[in-house]
Amino acid sequence: MNTVKSLLPHMLIILSGIFIVFLILNSYNPTMNFVTNSISIKLFWVFCILSIMNAILNIISNRNSWRNKKL
User: What is the Cα 14 distance to its own chain's centre?
Assistant: First the structure.
């Protein structure tokens, strides 16, 4: 369980980065149709930003608790 809990934020950052690349590619080349609906594009951006923020906060929390256990 601890392994999944520690790897999940890192996987969220990677997946959010991939989705952000898809959104950028969609804005430069809309014929590829990565994302087609304007509302879904906005919700996609919100998801990516919130996922990155959540992952960063979890990583900071995990590192602080790990450092406190070492002391």
Answer: 6
